[in-house]
Amino acid sequence: MKKDISEYNFEKGDIGEELVRRALRKKNYMLAFFEPGQAHPCDNIVTKWNMEFRALDIKTYPRRFYYPDTGINYSHYLKYIKIKDPFYLIFVDDIEKKVYGNSLFELNKKTTVNEVSYPFMQGSGDKKRIYFPLQNMEFYFGLPDDFCKELRGKSGGSYYDKNKQPKQFNINWQENKSWI
């Protein structure tokens, strides 16, 4: 029986979330997360003994093919900005082969890249998305080729066309290995 696209995306999301959770545990973070299948405001709450709590949501999304940005559903964004703790978006990106992210505070800073003003919104209704430039992201760690290939195999849509190559961008990544 053929899988529904949402089943592929759910599997892909689980893989990305577990990867980031393992990285956080290796850095001695304490994680709290919600029951699977339960509606939740974020994926995890993380902390260390000497640090404030941080809420984070892990997105196993690649950046857009032809733009130096990535984004999320606008309806999710509206929920995230209501959370009082510092809120972080973490992206597991199989095109860039990186895990990166930043706080919503930093991502919401007005930035212009290639004449596009960010944050940038596109679409309407359930399809409305908000995009953030890659240059405002912090680089956490790289992803091996075989892992990225596995993630691409979990994509149920037509996002990956073998005849199309994503545009390459020269991003000056802000490296932050202290937190993930």
In short:
23% of the residues lie in helices and 29% in strands. The chain contains four helices and twelve strands; from the N terminus they run αββββαββαβββββαβ.
Distance between the termini: 39 Å
Tally the beta strands. Answer: 12
CATH architecture: 3-Layer(aba) Sandwich
Helical amount: 10-25%
Global morphology? globular
Q: State the name of the first-level CATH class.
A: Alpha Beta
Strand order of the largest sheet: 1-2-3-5-6-11-12
CATH topology: Trna Endonuclease, Chain: A, domain 1
What proportion of the residues form beta strands (DSSP E)? 25-35%
> Can you write the helix and strand succession as a string?
HEEEEHEEHEEEEEHE
Overall structural class, as computed from helix and strand content, comes to alpha+beta
- What kind of sheet is the major sheet? 7 strands, mixed
Averaged pLDDT, please? 85
User: Which blocks of ≥5 consecutive residues have pLDDT under 50?
Assistant: 1-8
Tell me the Rg in angstroms: 16 Å
H/I helix tally? 4
